[in-house]
Structures are given as C-alpha cells and as structure tokens.
Amino acid sequence: MECYLTCLNNSHGEILLPDRVPVVVGRMPELGITDKVCSRNQLELTSNYHSKYVLVKRLGSNPSQIDGIEIERNTTSKLISGQKLFIVNMKYPHCVKFKDSCDQGIHEERDSSHHVKDSFPPSKRTKSYNKTDAAKKKLKIKNATTNNHDCLEDESSSEYSFKSNEDNVQSGVKISLAETTKTDKKSATTSKHWSSGLKSAMEDPENQVFQDEEVIIIKDKYPKARFHWLVLPRKNIPSIKHLKQEHLKLIKHMLEVGQALVNKKTDDSSLTSIKFRYGFHAIASMSQLHLHVISQDFSSKFLKTKKHWNSFTTDYFVDANDIIAELKTNGEVKNRSSSRLFLDTGLRFVHCNCLQLYFVICLQLFAGATFVVSHRKICRL
Ligand code: AMP
C-alpha cells in the first residue's frame, strides 16, 4: 500500500506520502507552485495507510480548501480519495490516491546514501519510522529539507537559507519532496531539492571558472559582493562537519586555487587593493562542501538581509585557515551547531585594515522585515 498526492492539473509527478510521516508541501518546484501567496510550508500532509485518509494541517497564512471548504490555520482536516485538495486560494487542485501495488526500487536507484534511518539519530526518530519499514526503505532525506520557516528568501529564488541538518532533526520529521516524488522522466528533473543546486551547478561547464582533478570553481549565482566564487571539491563531501584529517590536503588545495583565482582576476592594478576572505559558512544551507571566496566590498543587490550580512561578517564565516588548523590538530572540525546565533546579532561595522569603512543601515520596512543597505565610504589607500 502506498499513498500519493496527485496533481489534478498534471503539472507535476505524483508525490509519495509515506505512512504516518508528515510531509510539508507548498510553494516549491516539486509542486510547480511559484505563487508567493502560497507559503513554502503551506500544508502538512500525514497519511494513514490503514484507515486510508490523509490528515491535512494548514500551516500557511492563506487559506487552503478541501472540496471548497476552508481548512483553518493550524487545524487538521481529513482528506480521503475522491476529495479535492486546493493548496491555496482554491488553486492547485490535488487529490490523494491509495495504491496497493508498490514499485519498490525506483528511489533506491537514485541515491542510496540518505535513508531515513541514516539521517536521524535514533533518539530523534519517531515511532512511526520504526513502524513503517516499507517507507523507510524507500525514503531518503536530503541534507536540507523543506522546512523553510527561517529561510532567507531572495526575490529571485529560494537559494538562500540557513536551515541545516541540525534544524531538520530538531524540528522532527520533514521529508524532502524531491525524494518522495515518484520518478518519471519529467519529475526526475524537476524533483531535485534546491539545497542540492550546487552539485548540478558545478557540473555545468558553463558555470566553471576553473577546474582540475580535485576541485571546480564556479561563480556564486547570488553574489554577496563584487567578486564571489565558490570552490567545490569533486568528491562528495556534504559539509565541513564531514571533514576528517584525510581532507587536509584537499582543503589546502581549495584555498590555494581560490587564492590563485583572486590573484589572476585582480591582477589589474586598480583591483589589487580589494580585500578577500576565504572561508566556509559554519552551517551551510547548500549541500556539497563549498569554500566562499568573497571580496570584502559587499557591494551587491543580493546582500539584502541582516542574515546575509552577518553570515559573512561574524564568526559564522569560518576562515579556511581555521579549518586547516583544526584538521591538523584534532583531525576534525569543531562543532559549530550554535553558530546560527551569529546571524541574529546586531549589525556591525566592518573595517578592512582601518582603510576602508563599510557601514550598514538596517531599515525596518515592512512588518518586521529587515533590509540591509550596504554603502561603501571612500577611505582608500
Ligand atoms: P551557504 O550554503 O550558506 O554557504 O551558501 C550557499 C551559496 O551558494 C550562497 O552564496 C548562494 O548564493 C550560492 N548558490 C545557491 N545556488 C547556487 C547555484 N545554483 N549556483 C551557484 N551558486 C549558488
């Protein structure tokens, strides 16, 4: 027995709703919904295979409906086969289908590395996981999932979030739709979770600024400064947490190629005074290890929020040399799971060798939203 969320407009493939495992859906590529009226966490769907219904909890602020009847926010309604679920504002009609046949194996073909049982420590697993062996076998969870309450939203995309593995564990069960979507050719391409975007970006030759046997350098798609590149290892290493002593050489190499690129690009005498930093975010939002190579002007239309600013100007930004030192002495990188606090600290001025001053004005514009305007005061060499 399996349960699928099916789009009545056929705009995406079927989405597996595992037995008694909450799956959050909303504005996301997997559902083909880009309408900002729809929250990224619009609905939480929990299927019950035994009783053949799906509990629908509305999390988003705008209304969702079952057969035209509004589901109140934070309340749960039952959805059964034959009923129409409108994701938001009587739009995006879906239904649920309970099917007896199960084509096991389609999910295993894609990535055998992130099974539910591997992704959560035993203490954090819910009872339902232990009960749902079939679901366990088929489901995988990406390094970052769809819990986007804290995400930093860019107008242009959902690229930026400081949500991490740790959050997903803490917040309980959140399943990446990318991994629960039934695989047909179309959904295989659309179902990739945004957090794996760097992996596809680095494989695209058009993005590659530099490559060798060990690493690939790409331009950051949403640069937070005038120059902003990402150095990625070819090897699959999800984050700094996964680094061991054996990676020391690789990290040194990543730093070296980053520095070499900067030297090459800033060879021009007018650019030699530009300062750069090389480091990792303590809790990266994107999976696949990436070294940020970023100029310290922070002159960018993409640097829009306090969190963006703090992620590069506080200890949330971990210097590559610190990582190298930790690997040398301890053979691992220290735990930085509380680093998220840096993102909410007050804005601070950034002085570059006391020669350049950047100041930041924080404007409380709309309801509680924080915008950062960075401005460079000319105080040059
Ligand atoms: P973080 O995971 O916090 O270290 O930051 C991820 C970085 O990846 C951000 O600076 C994003 O602007 C950048 N980014 C996100 N998606 C892409 C992409 N598809 N190609 C290149 N850079 C990206």
Q: In which range does the helix fraction lie?
A: 10-25%
Cα gyration radius (Å): 22 Å
**Number of helix segments?**
11
- As residue ranges, the low-confidence spans are 102-191, 352-381
Q: How far apart are the first and last residues' alpha carbons, in Å?
A: 70 Å
Output the structural class: alpha+beta
Biggest β-sheet: strands ordered side by side in the sheet: 2-1-10-9-6-7
Question: Roughly what fraction of the amino acids lie in strands?
Answer: 15-25%
Bound molecules: adenosine monophosphate
Largest sheet entry: 6 strands, antiparallel
The general outline is elongated
Number of distinct beta strands: 19
Order of helices and strands: EEEEEEEEEEHHHHHHHEEEHEEHEHHEEE
User: Could you tell me the mean pLDDT?
Assistant: 73
Task: Give structural attributes.
binds adenosine monophosphate; 381 residues; elongated; alpha+beta; 11 helices
Description of the structure:
This protein is of the alpha+beta class and 381 residues long. Helices cover 21% and strands 25% of the residues. The chain has eleven helices and 19 strands. The chain has helices spanning 116-119, 127-131, 133-138, 165-170, 177-180, 185-190, 197-203, 248-265, 306-313, 320-330, 340-343, and strands spanning 2-7, 15-16, 23-25, 43-48, 53-58, 64-66, 69-71, 76-79, 85-88, 91-99, 208-211, 215-219, 228-233, 276-281, 291-295, 317-319, 350-352, 356-364, 370-377. The strands form four sheets. Strands 2-1-10-9-6-7 form a six-stranded antiparallel beta sheet, with no helix packed on it. A six-stranded antiparallel beta sheet has the order 11-12-13-15-14-16, with helices on both faces. Helix 8 packs antiparallel against helix 10 (320-330). The longest helix has 18 residues, at 248-265. Bound molecules: adenosine monophosphate (AMP). Adenosine monophosphate (AMP) binds at residues 159-160, 197-198, 201, 218, 220-222, 230, 281, 284-286, 290.
